[in-house]
């Protein structure tokens, strides 16, 4: 069991205060040596997490040549943002209009005021780059079954693909479920009524005809990623009805597979920045997730690419406000984030000084932060009255992350649309 006084002393010794991005440069320099920098967040609704990750990403892009941002968002809607920042022809006149593409709940994760200036910065940066050097913005989550299926049909129709009829058959099979994930999962799991055969037929045909899709490299990537999303989303929705742990694994395995496809597009030495919740980017082996057989992006990328090529930075807060819903699908609202519970990681960071700070973990201090401690995690559904019952993940912090950024007081982000 961790001794509070010892931990406070360790934080006082090894944490560094910061009040500007420049003061984070020792951390950024070290992180930039990796091929993948994983930027976490303790919530999906905190302004400072988005704004600081944007500033870190700008630094990595402009000073260290990082080529893309991959986020915990759907491929089709993020692709609209990607098209905008790369200057492709579309109907969007500004970043805010582009973010209207994020319609699925919780839309505020990406359709928020904090993202707008970052997308405008990316567009301006790309305007001075050759087409092959433009920075990308991509979604690697698994939820977009219907949206990706629609994108596939539209694209195959536009190029008069021989696979169009098979795509229409698969799409027609999914249509009766009216984009209701639970409905499809129940039907597939308990009644053996699914679209698996139609989907496999389509994907096998597209694979055999792959040579016709390679005329436009980014259009080919778009098709591949939508096909990947459809394939893995079908598996995810089928599994989520009966096995939460396995469906979680399908989702995070999909994210890493998607990341690999995107990396291949940007080249053999691609360097990417990943924005996701701490529960995805912080190594699952350093939490109680491992006991339930769960894996995540942080673990899988370390295993796939090697520890030296992945640098995970966790983000947390002591208190403030956040945007979340009281139940899934309900309207977002601004909620209070109470002071972290005594003895938690966030409370100890506060005890070591009520200011923003960061810690870089290394061989010299690793053991000081390797004892299990409760670490705050807030999702898109939140009720602060019950926070102590389920919002603290037992974690070995120095094993979960390469570094940690603590924001003492945080504010809710600003959704763009109701």
Automatic annotation (TrEMBL):
**Signal peptide (residue range):** none
Which GO terms fall under biological process for this protein?
A: response to antibiotic
SUPFAM superfamilies reported for this sequence: EreA/ChaN-like
Give the highest taxon in the source lineage.
Answer: Bacteria
Tell me the Pfam families matching this sequence: Erythro_esteras
InterPro entries for the chain:
Emycin_Estase (IPR007815), Hydrolase/PRTase-associated (IPR052036), UCP036794_erythomycin (IPR014622)
User: What name goes with this protein?
Assistant: Erythromycin esterase family protein
Native species of this protein?
Halalkalibacter alkaliphilus
